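Figure caption, in words: inputs first, then the predicted bound structure.
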Amino acid sequence: MFMTKRRVCMLLVAALLVLAAGYVQAQERATVLASFEDDSDFKLLTVRAVNPSIVDTRATDGDRSLQAIYTDGHDFPSLWLLMDESGNNPALPADWTPYEYVVVVVDVWNDSNFVIELYYAFIDQDDNKFDRFKTVLLPGRWTQFSVPVKDIPLDTSRMRRLELWMYSQGRDIPLYIDNIRLVAPSQ
Ligand SMILES: [Ca+2]
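Bound structure (calcium ion present):
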């Protein structure tokens, strides 16, 4: 027996609502590692030839973001986000295995007039390092970096830090960084 067009439309709408609900649910399952809403987030950071400050502009989550000015003070200016190895801070989990198919997502705004290559290195608690990812940051716009946790060939149950670095550009390169997060897939 053929379904009427009306019934087909209703089923399609119902299917779209289910998909939309799944999408919203996936969005809600993001675990924010760093949103830089509070000056206390400085304790998450270690820097090398980078001047960090928390500012009230360029936020993609909340009201504030991290301004990170990469300088020419080192061949590889770098910003590290440290995981919580004690397990006391669920916002900075060192164990990423519950997020096997989750992606690590970082929003970065390039506030310079130059095209910049930004590299992403992952380091576990045995100090094994995986440093194969990079994104090209076009001037004056957001770029979103994401990588599935399963594609990081380290002990992702014991992560130590995420490093964002670039080759020295011979000048100051201001970036804005916000909403570093682990995002669960849709179910
Ligand atoms: Ca924020």
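Residues 5-28 form the longest helix (24 residues).
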